[in-house]
Amino acid sequence: MLSKIFRVAFIAMVLQVFVLSASYAAGPGGAPIPGGGMDDEDAAIMEEMQREAEEKAAEVKEIPPFKMIFVQGGCFEMGDFAGVGDPDERPVHEVCVSDYRLAETEVTQELWEAVMGYNAMGEPDMQKPIARVTWFWATRFLEQLNERTGGFYRLPSEAEWEYAAREGGKEMAWSGTDDDNQLKKYSWFEDNSDGELHRVKEREPNALGFYDMSGNVWEWVDDYFGFDFYKESPKADPYGPDSANWKVIRGGSYVETPHRTRTTYRHAFEPTRSSHGLGFRLAE
Q1: pLDDT by residue (tens digit) across 32-66?
Q2: How far apart are CA 7 and CA 49, in angstroms?
Q3: Domain ranges of the chain
Q4: What residues contact 17, with CB distance under 8 A and at least 6 apart?
Q5: If one looks up domain 2-280 in CATH, what number appears?
Q6: What is the pLDDT of residue 40?
Q7: Nearest to residue 49, comparing CAs of 18, 17, 5, 19?
Q8: Which of 8, 13, 105 shows the shortest CA–CA distance to 55?
Q9: Which helix (H) or strand (E) holds 218?
Q10: DSSP characters for 128-195?
Q11: For residues 280 and 66, is the Cβ–Cβ distance under 8 A?
Q12: Can you tell me the mean pLDDT for 69-78?
């Protein structure tokens, strides 16, 4: 049993080296985000980590409590309401979302480790968000969490994410405030993070109770990225295109400018790639 644990730890350490040494990765949604991605060898290592974790499933820790907040659905004007964004944030268009629940924080390292059986972060801190996770690994986490709990957890849609970040669709430039002088109260970004990932719930939540929807780590959502999707988006519970080379990430990270942590900012990222500033949040 101990040998299995040591093998998982060793593989995690090797993965850390690959991730830290990767270059910048870019998509059509804007400038590159730090971290880089995985090649075939990296992906094979991740698969090996998963097999090891499944073998020691009996040793997986009890799942810690996490809070899901009810969000009453409604209609809002999605997109660059302030006229300061990028072309893929336009046109502003009416969207209606159904009721749903969203996690108050990003998935923590504690929750990830309890479900998956390992932690690939270089310097683990259980109350920091999990990062360095591809979209595919986020969905595998969700599969295992649902199997363990009997739940129906998933990634939020892009519309659900923006609706919650904007406190039910208000014209909020950042999650929690529309005043850039108040941004440091609500967000970890380049001006106040000291270049480090921070624990969840250290900044103020927005009015709906959600933490770190601007800054700390980018968050995967379920939609494929379409540069012109807003021109053809359906009104009711929209999802992105049926397929694309990229998935959408939202919210910015601890190394980003205020512009890139805005509630309407969109970025495209390959689902097979990871970054030390990229995690995710649960929806149901």
Answers
A1: 554 444 445 555 555 665 565 555 544 568 999 99
A2: 9
A3: 2-280
A4: none
A5: 3.90.1580.10
A6: 52
A7: 5
A8: 8
A9: strand 218-224
A10: SBP-S--HHHHHHHHHHHHHHH----BPPPHHHHHHHHTTTT---SBTTBS-GGGHHHH-B-TTTSTT
A11: no
A12: 98
